[in-house]
């Protein structure tokens, strides 16, 4: 393995650079995935059948908590990567941990919110609108859930193996993933919730 | 026993019971054979756990040929049923199931792996790389495709085949009108195979962008590699659409949601739109690599460099963009109004322009070339006129007003077979003959090969030209019979004879493989066709590390320059080579995906949960594992190279 020390650790081997490019292309595919979900959402948003509309069921409080928590976690994962580049493993791990905790909070609030939807009569089977709403949110939520486990496994690896080109690469790629989920959430926040609340 | 009732076939027939027995016997025979010849270890070590792009390519190739057989059997049954009016060989239900599985198998499980086979085998060689960017992911892609294919293929003996057409339009494909688990098979099998394809897309774009030999700029890549790059870009952007559509379809069927139903706000046309937003790019995913193959073959056997390299690349890029802008032409008649139809008519016809550019480039390559007629070249030469018939009728279909007459008739069926068969199938058969010596170290017999090419191409014409006429006369597609008075009998009989001819052609190819394996000379050069690109610069069969020394490239035809103009491809000393380790995880993950899909199809939630956990466990295993690959030492390289006569 050739290590190029003029580059940040996560870019320092050929395989590392390949991994990062591959992941960017994967994000391209993810954009199409969420793009399709949004297209479906916009198509079905007014097709509420006998069920409620967005304005009937959206709640401000959980929405603000989710948004605040997730945006902050995007910031902290940025700090984690910054610390990693400075070689400060401990600080990195702390920020990584905070990120995952915030992710967990986000997820808990989302579960609470789903529960609320269900209780106000917006179940998966109620109408085309509720189905696409829950599917879009659920797909994002499933990504966050996956991210939590993934992030946890990276934290464990960094703890055991230290900051190597490999673990640094994984952490960096994880941060891309996490920022991406944040971007998706911004779209969900603006085009699903805000537009729905108006 | 009630539990097992769900696995019963809803519309049994003696033929299905016979197939069950046949499948059972084949499985037993395979297991017994492997045990008797003590081949389990070999199978596991050399194939099931391999991450070598060449072996994965060969496995794709074998799967594609098997699926061609399965899809072909479906085709023969359909044509036999329609050969005479009011035939009763098949009833309506069975006919529905057969045209559905025929379409799915041919597009997703025959044409796709055929393309994947050559992409896998050829692209890393053409760019002078050791393997793809993510060899393990590549193995996983293969196993996901394979398990998806197996899942769909068992449907007709376990629980019932899908029967709503390969397009699976809702509401027909919803629970109300498709009660059996058949359409669940469709949703899950395509989902699993589609995930594999998506990963291939990511893998190959990365490979092509990052792993080219020194000196090979983008505009010096061989044309097949270019076509692979563009194709994989289409895959990455088109397949997620299918993923979402299938997810929504699955939820409609298994969780009673209302995406595509006609109640509670559901919208059936949304499926049709999503399906074709993926589906039209999909046909270009099939055709572009085929174009790439033709470019390689035509320039090799005209002994000339490809005419209009830049316009070839440009037209592929334009096709890839346009392919996302034409999907509505598949349902002009389903009510979106004149303005929309007109716009999509124009984009559709526009696609014929870059396609035409490519055809003329091939013709100009042939012009004044020293043409050598070999089997691959014969397929390529037959492709040009037959494909043009398909393309021109495509433009006819693209005129929305006229499409009201053609839509859902045999005219449409004739169109897409006349593009897909000469376009994709001929290309893949040409590639089979062309790359066979590189894969296995001996050539397929040219005489049998050429007879096969003629039989197959003439049968294609015989089978599909009559459909243009019966279609214009009003014979609808997907109808299991027609009355005597329609007068369609004669034309359909011709089609039947053509289909039989095609089957004979297929048998000739299989026979050729058998014959050449036994009798062909093993003493051939590593460059038997006097070809032009890097894959011919290494030994046949290719050593596992592909190239002992990484080649230096200075033109789009590096190997040709090396042969004719004294360019040095391999400079420098042997160095130890880093290779990835084999791994059983992709195969095991594939098996778990199979179990996951199967239990999902039948709504057996506990196994679904267990296998979901299994899938994630495999991923975790991969994440924690320390696998840095292994090195092939200089001594070993020297030994291999001398034994190959370098
Ligand atoms: C010159 C380029 C082409 C044009 C203008 C064109 C146009 C069309 C149109 C308008 C239809 C829909 C007709 C209808 O449903 O009434 C159609 C169907 C189809 N085309 Fe093409 N096409 C072209 C090339 C191709 C190629 C290269 C392929 C495949 C390799 C292909 C595969 C198909 C398939 C599979 C269908 C039918 C799908 C179905 O309904 O089951 N076409 N084409
Ligand atoms: Cu199309």
TrEMBL record, chain A:
Name under which the protein is recorded: Cytochrome (Ubi)quinol oxidase subunit III
Keyword flag Oxidoreductase: yes
Membrane topology recorded in Swiss-Prot or TrEMBL: Multi-pass membrane protein
**Which terms are listed as keywords in the entry?**
Cell membrane, Membrane, Oxidoreductase, Transmembrane, Transmembrane helix
Q: Which residues form a coiled coil?
A: none
Q: Which domain of life is it from?
A: Bacteria
> Entry's PANTHER family?
CYTOCHROME BO(3) UBIQUINOL OXIDASE SUBUNIT 3 (PTHR11403:SF2), CYTOCHROME C OXIDASE SUBUNIT III (PTHR11403)
Q: Which family is it part of?
A: Belongs to the cytochrome c oxidase subunit 3 family.
User: Taking the first listed entry, what is the main subcellular location of this protein, grouped into a coarse class?
Assistant: membrane
Ranges for domain Heme-copper oxidase subunit III family profile come to 1-197
User: What single Pfam family name could you report for this chain, choosing any that match?
Assistant: COX3
Q: Where in the cell is it found?
A: Cell membrane
Name the CDD domains for this protein: Ubiquinol_oxidase_III
Q: Which SUPFAM superfamilies match?
A: Cytochrome c oxidase subunit III-like (SSF81452)
* Residue spans crossing the bilayer: 21-43, 63-81, 93-112, 132-156, 176-194
From TrEMBL, chain B:
The cofactors it requires, by name, are: Cu cation; ferriheme a
Protein EC: 1.10.3.-
Record keywords: Transferase included? no
Superkingdom, natural source: Bacteria
Q: Which InterPro entries match?
A: Cyt_c_oxase-like_su1_dom, Cyt_c_oxase-like_su1_sf, Cyt_C_Oxase_1, Cyt_c_Oxase_su1_BS, QoxB
Q: Where are the transmembrane segments?
A: 15-37, 58-78, 98-125, 137-158, 185-205, 226-249, 269-294, 306-327, 339-364, 376-402, 414-436, 448-469, 489-514, 584-602
The answer on whether this UniProt entry bears the keyword GTP-binding reads no
Keywords of the record, alphabetical order, are: Cell membrane, Copper, Electron transport, Heme, Hydrogen ion transport, Ion transport, Iron, Membrane, Metal-binding, Oxidoreductase, Respiratory chain, Transmembrane, Transmembrane helix, Transport
Cytochrome oxidase subunit I profile domain location: 38-554
What membrane topology term does the record carry? Multi-pass membrane protein
The entry's localization annotation reads: Cell membrane
Give the co-factor note: Binds a copper B center. Heme A3.
**Chief localization:** membrane
Q: Report the catalytic activity.
A: 2 a quinol + O2 = 2 a quinone + 2 H2O
Q: In which pathway does it act?
A: Energy metabolism; oxidative phosphorylation
Q: Which Pfam families match?
A: COX1
PROSITE patterns linked to this entry: COX1, COX1_CUB
Q: Which of the seven top EC classes does this enzyme belong to?
A: oxidoreductase
> Its function?
Catalyzes quinol oxidation with the concomitant reduction of oxygen to water.
Give the family, as the similarity comment puts it: Belongs to the heme-copper respiratory oxidase family.
Q: Which NCBIfam families does this entry report, sorted A to Z?
A: QoxB (TIGR02882)
Protein name from the UniProt record: Quinol oxidase subunit 1
What is the scientific name of the source organism?
A: Cytobacillus citreus
Read off the lineage from the record: Bacteria, Bacillati, Bacillota, Bacilli, Bacillales
- Write the gene name: qoxB
């Amino acid at each position: 393995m050739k290590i190029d020390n003029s580059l940040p650790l996560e870019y320092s081997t050929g395989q590392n650079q390949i991994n990062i490019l591959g992941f960017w292309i994967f994000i391209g595919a993810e954009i199409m995935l969420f793009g399709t979900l949004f297209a479906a959402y916009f198509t079905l948003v007014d097709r509420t059948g006998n069920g409620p509309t967005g304005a009937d069921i959206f709640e401000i409080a959980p929405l603000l908590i989710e948004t605040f928590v997730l945006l902050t976690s995007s910031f902290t994962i940025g700090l984690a990567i910054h610390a990693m580049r400075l070689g400060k493993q401990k600080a990195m791990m702390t920020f990584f941990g905070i990120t995952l905790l915030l992710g967990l909070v986000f997820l808990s609030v989302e579960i609470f919110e789903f529960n609320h939807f269900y209780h106000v009569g917006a179940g998966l089977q109620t109408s085309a609108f509720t189905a696409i709403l829950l599917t879009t949110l659920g797909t994002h939520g499933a990504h966050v859930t996956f991210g939590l486990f993934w992030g946890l496994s990276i934290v464990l690896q960094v703890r055991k193996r230290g900051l190597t080109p490999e673990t640094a690469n994984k952490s960096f790629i994880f941060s891309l993933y996490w920022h991406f989920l944040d971007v998706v959430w911004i779209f969900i926040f603006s085009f699903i919730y805000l537009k729905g609340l108006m | 026993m009630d539990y097992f009732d769900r696995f019963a076939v809803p519309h049994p027939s003696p033929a299905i019971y016979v197939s069950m027995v046949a499948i059972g016997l084949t499985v037993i025979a395979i297991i017994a054979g492997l045990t008797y010849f003590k081949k389990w270890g070999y199978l596991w070590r050399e194939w099931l756990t391999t991450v070598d792009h060449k072996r994965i390519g060969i496995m794709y190739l074998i799967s594609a040929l098997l699926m061609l057989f399965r899809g072909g059997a479906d085709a023969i049954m359909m044509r036999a049923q329609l050969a005479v009016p009011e035939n009763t060989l098949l009833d309506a239900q069975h006919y529905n199931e057969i045209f559905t599985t025929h379409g799915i198998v041919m597009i997703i499980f025959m044409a796709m792996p055929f393309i994947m086979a050559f992409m896998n085998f050829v692209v890393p060689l053409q760019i002078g790389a050791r393997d793809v960017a993510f060899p393990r992911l590549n193995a996983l892609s293969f196993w996901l495709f394979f398990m998806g294919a197996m899942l769909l293929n068992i449907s007709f003996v376990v629980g019932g085949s899908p029967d709503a057409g390969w397009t699976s339009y809702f509401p027909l494909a919803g629970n109300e009108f498709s009660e059996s688990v058949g359409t669940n098979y469709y949703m899950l099998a395509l989902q699993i195979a589609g995930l594999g394809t998506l990963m291939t897309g990511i893998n190959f774009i990365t490979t092509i962008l990052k792993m080219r030999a020194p000196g090979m700029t983008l505009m010096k890549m061989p044309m097949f590699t270019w076509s692979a790059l563009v194709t994989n870009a289409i895959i990455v952007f088109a397949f997620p659409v299918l993923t979402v559509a299938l997810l929504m379809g699955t939820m409609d069927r298994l969780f009673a949601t209302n995406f595509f139903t006609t109640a509670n706000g559901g919208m059936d046309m949304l499926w049709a739109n999503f399906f074709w937003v993926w589906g039209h790019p999909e046909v270009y995913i099939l055709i572009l690599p085929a174009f790439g193959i033709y470019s390689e073959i035509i320039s090799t056997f005209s002994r000339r460099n490809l005419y209009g390299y830049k316009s070839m690349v440009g037209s592929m890029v334009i096709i890839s963009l346009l392919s996302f802008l034409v999907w509505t032409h598949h349902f002009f008649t389903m009510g979106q109004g004149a303005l929309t139809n007109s716009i999509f008519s124009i984009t559709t016809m526009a696609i014929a322009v870059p396609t035409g550019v490519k055809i003329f480039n091939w013709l100009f390559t042939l012009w004044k070339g020293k043409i050598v007629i070999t089997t691959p070249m014969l397929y390529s030469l037959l492709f040009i006129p037959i494909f043009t018939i398909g393309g021109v009728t495509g433009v006819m279909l693209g005129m929305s007003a006229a499409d009201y007459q053609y839509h859902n008739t045999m005219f449409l069926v004739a169109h897409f077979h006349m593009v897909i068969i000469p376009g994709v199938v001929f290309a893949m058969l040409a590639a089979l003959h062309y790359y066979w010596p590189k894969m296995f170290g001996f050539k397929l017999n040219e005489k049998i090969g050429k007879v096969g090419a003629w039989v197959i191409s003439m049968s294609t014409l015989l089978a599909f030209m009559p459909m243009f006429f019966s279609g214009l006369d009003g014979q609808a597609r997907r109808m299991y019979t027609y009355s005597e008075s329609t007068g369609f009998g004669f034309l359909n009989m011709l089609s039947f004879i053509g289909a039989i001819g095609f089957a004979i052609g297929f048998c000739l190819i299989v026979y050729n493989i058998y014959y050449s394996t036994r009798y062909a000379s093993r003493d051939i050069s590593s460059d038997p066709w006097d070809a032009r690109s890097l894959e011919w610069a290494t030994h046949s069969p290719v050593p596992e590390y592909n190239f002992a020394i990484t080649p230096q490239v200075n033109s789009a035809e590096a190997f040709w320059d090396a042969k004719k103009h004294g360019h040095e491809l391999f400079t420098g000393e042997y160095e130890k080579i880093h290779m990835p380790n084999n791994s059983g995880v992709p195969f095991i993950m594939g098996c778990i995906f199979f179990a996951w899909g199967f239990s999902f199809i039948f709504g057996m939630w506990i196994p679904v949960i267990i296998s979901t956990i299994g899938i994630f466990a495999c991923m975790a295993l991969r994440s924690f594992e320390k696998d840095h690959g292994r090195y092939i030492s200089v001594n070993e390289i020297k030994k291999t190279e001398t034994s190959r006569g370098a």
